[in-house]
């Protein structure tokens, strides 16, 4: 098992910094190349470049009332979530299908209760 990870291209875990302007403020984001590759794919699907997509994610998150104290972690989770939703079939593998065209409400409605691992029953006590 470990060879699949250990013998992967070491450039995947090298961190790279992107600087962008959000609302007139220069912001730098430093994450690993593997995450940048996924985020670039997400942006491309909806006809945006990386800074445009990151700015849009930032604004929509703020509009939704999220505290983005750790925006870098948020972007990592976005990348992982994109891959997981592709694996589950909720996001088509065909990159020509824009993410904005998907039924986000339907996808979210099929997800397990927050905090519960996928595929396991949630036990509640009253």
Q: What structural class should be given to the helix and strand makeup? A: alpha+beta
**Largest sheet, strands/sense/barrel:** 2 strands, antiparallel
Query: What fraction strand?
Result: 5-15%
Strand element count: 2
Distance between the termini: 42 Å
Rg value: 17 Å
Order of helices and strands: HEEHHHH
Description:
Pfam families: RHH_4. Residues 16-83 form the Ribbon-helix-helix domain. InterPro entries: RHH_dom, RHH_sf. This is Ribbon-helix-helix domain-containing protein. With 126 residues, this protein is an alpha+beta fold. Helices cover 44% and strands 13% of the residues. It has helices at 2-6, 33-45, 50-63, 71-88, 104-109, and strands spanning 15-22, 25-32. Strands 1-2 form a two-stranded antiparallel sheet. Helix 2 crosses helix 3 and helix 2 crosses helix 4. The longest helix is centred in the middle third of the chain and has 18 residues, at 71-88. The chain is globular, with a radius of gyration of 17 Å. Residues 119-126 have low confidence and may be disordered.
Concise synopsis of the structure shown:
With 126 residues, the chain is an alpha+beta fold.
């Amino acid at each position: 098992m470990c060879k699949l990870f250990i013998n992967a291209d070491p450039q995947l875990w090298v961190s790279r910094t992107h600087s962008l302007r959000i609302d007139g403020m220069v912001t730098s984001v430093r994450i690993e190349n593997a995450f940048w590759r996924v985020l670039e794919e997400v942006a491309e699907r909806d006809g945006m470049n990386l800074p445009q997509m990151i700015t849009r994610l930032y604004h929509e998150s703020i509009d939704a009332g999220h505290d983005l104290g750790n925006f870098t972690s948020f972007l990592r989770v976005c990348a992982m979530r994109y891959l997981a939703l592709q694996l589950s079939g909720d996001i088509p593998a065909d990159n020509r299908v824009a993410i904005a065209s998907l039924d986000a409400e339907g996808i979210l409605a099929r997800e397990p209760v927050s905090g519960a691992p996928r595929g396991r029953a949630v036990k509640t006590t009253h």
